[in-house]
């Protein structure tokens, strides 16, 4: 399979000290990219062979990603990339609102280190000009990761890394990424402009409204797509 040939290219990332953590990092990235879409069954033999790792190492990597809620083990069927429920999506956004808004609210005195946020905004705008909506989606995730990074907390970064990886599972189900992401390009830029101006409270208000609107729009589309998929398999 072409996909496994590509995955074999990742073998170099393992280096001499191949570990389950490194394998899970590779698979997490591939899942986030949509390389393994939600609902895909992951073959131990194929993936282990492509990466050149043992079955035990791969199973430990699967266990780590199951703990992160990216994979699910189904008895007598195997390991699958998780398909989120609408309730999962709503819970992800609750977590995002709690953490992201708290980060902005807790910022100290300006100026703020928004260089990473500015790069993400520019990447999103470039992707839109090129009609590359997958790149826009990735840039949007980077925008929010850089926003969280303003807290300067490795623990918060780690928690939100998993949350954003889960969110990508929902994005991969949506069949119109332009409609999903395009409205938020200008809003990302507005939050950046507000932070540059040192208006922490204004940025928090913009972010809270942004996340509420994003949840409403995503749930509307996602619920329809999940229902269509269930009907297609019934």
Task: Please give a structural write-up.
- The chain has 234 residues and is mainly α.
- The protein contains eleven helices and three strands.
- It has a three-stranded antiparallel sheet.
- A hairpin with a 3-residue loop joins strand 2 (71-74) and strand 3 (78-81).
- It is globular.
Features of the shown structure:
3-stranded antiparallel beta sheet, 11 helices, 4% strand, 234 residues, mainly alpha
Overview in brief:
The chain is mainly α. 71% of the residues lie in helices and 4% in strands. A hairpin with a 3-residue loop joins strand 2 and strand 3.
Computed CA radius of gyration, to the nearest angstrom: 19 Å
Q: Can you list the strand order of the major beta sheet? A: 1-3-2
Tell me, what's the shape?
Answer: globular
Which structural class should the secondary elements be placed in?
A: mainly alpha
Q: What percent of residues adopt helix (DSSP H or I)?
A: over 70%
Q: If helices are DSSP runs of H or I spanning 4 or more residues, what is the number of helices?
A: 11
Order of helices and strands: HHEHHEEHHHHHHH
Mean pLDDT: 91
**Sheet having the most strands:** 3 strands, antiparallel
Uncertain segments of ≥5 residues (pLDDT<50)? none
- Total beta strand runs: 3
Calculate the terminal CA-CA distance, rounded to whole Å.
Answer: 28 Å
Q: What proportion strand? A: under 5%
